[in-house]
Amino acid sequence: MYLLKFTFAILILTTGVQLFYYLWYYLAVALFKSPEASSDKPPVSVIICARNEAENLDNFLPAVLKQDYPDYEVIVVNDCSEDNTDDILGKYLSEYSHLKISSINKDPKFTHSKKLAQLVGIKAAKNELLLFTDADCKPESNLWIAAMASKFTADTGFVLGYGGYFQKNGLLNAFIRYDCMTIAMQYFGMAIRKMPYMGVGRNLAYKRSIFFENKGYGAYNHLASGDDDLFVNGNATADNTAVEFSHNSHTRSVPAATLKDFFKQKCRHMTTAGYYKSRDKFALLTEPISRMLFYAALVVLLINRFLLPYVLACFGLRLCVQLITLILVGKKLNEQKIVLISLLFDVFSPIINSVFYICKPSRKSGVAKWK
Question: Which of 7, 45, 152, 180 holds its CA 20 to 30 A away from the CA of 364?
């Protein structure tokens, strides 16, 4: 009996923690009303790093080059590509005067992460506002640059955007899109609540001066990942960070096609988690741990039929708040089709992400290949 009472206390506590995250952070995304956008259209440098991305560049680069924006350049860093990337870029170079190419030649004695390619692109940029995306990303509209740039003011150093994934058939694709949406729900919500902790390189903007004033990637340069989230984590503040997730500002990326590819991608991303600020690590760990404890306590109490009406009330309350939040956020991020299946993934994702974290490359692995 005492064990069941203790389990019930855990259920009550974790229900409270879960409701706090949904009502304070996640619902903030759904209810967020963006401040009036600036009418100024400052010049922008779009930076894309590409390694063996000929097909993706051919498919998606035109959408970047055809943006409805008066003054912007597109810098593609061709990083040691061994496919026909040069031919594809040459084709567009002759057609678009605002396209610039920087190349890094392969050296068998020297390996490097994506950060070197990013640095080359940043140094080549002539404008203060830098907008980053990937070679396998496509802007959702021709107003992508305009939407992201409109959030910059004199005090704004970072603009966090949404980079979703293309919809495909299959459970893996649904989970990838769920994972992407819930991570965005986290970093947007925390940024809105003045706790910015990360952004995604698929859709991220910041000022060039911030990069150099803070000595670039600094202590994290040896990591394969972190050019986006760790840079934001180390330099974004409550006062210099804005969010932009209107539909015009979205990008869509090619998702991992196989479980093996997704596993490798997530494990690589997990290498940055240990470098977050202590405050952010606490906030990010508390939610999934409380969720696992919530479901574990729920199962134990349901099996033993202990205080069943109260147990069902806790479950029902969390479910209602969760479903309403997911529906509203799904509309904001244009991810309505994965709302219902998200309820299933909600149960298992903390365990899956724990596996990714355990299997992440060691810190001694150095500058691993980024492609």
Answer: 180
Domain count, the chain: 1
Between residues 370 and 3, which one has the greater pLDDT?
Answer: 3
pLDDT at 112: 81
For 110, 133, 162, the CA distances from 235, given in Å and listed in that order, are 29, 19, 19
User: In one letter, which amino acid is 204?
Assistant: L
The boundaries of the domain holding residue 141 are 36-161+180-256
Residue 42 lies in a domain: yes
**H-assigned helices in the chain:** 2-20, 27-31, 54-65, 85-93, 114-124, 144-149, 171-192, 208-213, 229-235, 259-269, 278-304, 308-332, 339-358
Q: SS3 of 110, please?
A: strand
Question: Counting every residue, how long is the chain?
Answer: 371
Retrieve residue 340's tokens. 């219902």
Task: State the Cα–Cα distance between residues 42 and 29, nearest whole angstrom.
Answer: 27
Query: Distance between CA 307 and CA 8 in Å, rounded?
Result: 8
Residue 198: give its domain's CATH number: 3.90.550.10
0.85 surpassed by pTM:
yes
The verdict on residue 25 lying in a domain is: no
Express each pLDDT in 266-286 by its tens digit: 988 888 988 999 999 999 999
Residues paired with residue 49 on neighbouring β-strands, in sequence order: 77, 134
